[in-house]
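Sample entry follows:

_____
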Amino acid sequence: MPRITRKKIKDEEAFRRQLKSRSLKLTPQRLAVHRAMCELIHASADMVQEHIGEECKISTVSIYNILSELADNGIYSRRYSPNNKMYFDVDPSRHVHLFDSRNNEFLDVGDLDLIPLVETGLKRKRFRGYKMDNIEIQIICHPTRKKLI
């Protein structure tokens, strides 16, 4: 049975190396956003703003721009919820997500077999006029108990 996981988060030194390799400077704002994301794992700019609080004076727009820049550079990734809200994921690798529709949160699923299984099935399919770029698996669900984690 697939299990809900919490992946190991990049440490600050790894984050610094990633920024440097992409010619991005480590600013206090980027570091504050990264620290918040390491705790939140999946978050919107509003959630990061709330998490940072008074630690670092930074607007929600600036946080969104930082998160977008990190996603554009492959350090984070973007996730879209069924209610059309953009979330960012500190783990840019391919993995499966559950979206808890009651609590509006993403959870990682530790099922390494699912993505290759779906890809194999879809390789035989043709979508007239389209070429498949990527497959993202997002399972929309709701909790059956009060709090599982």
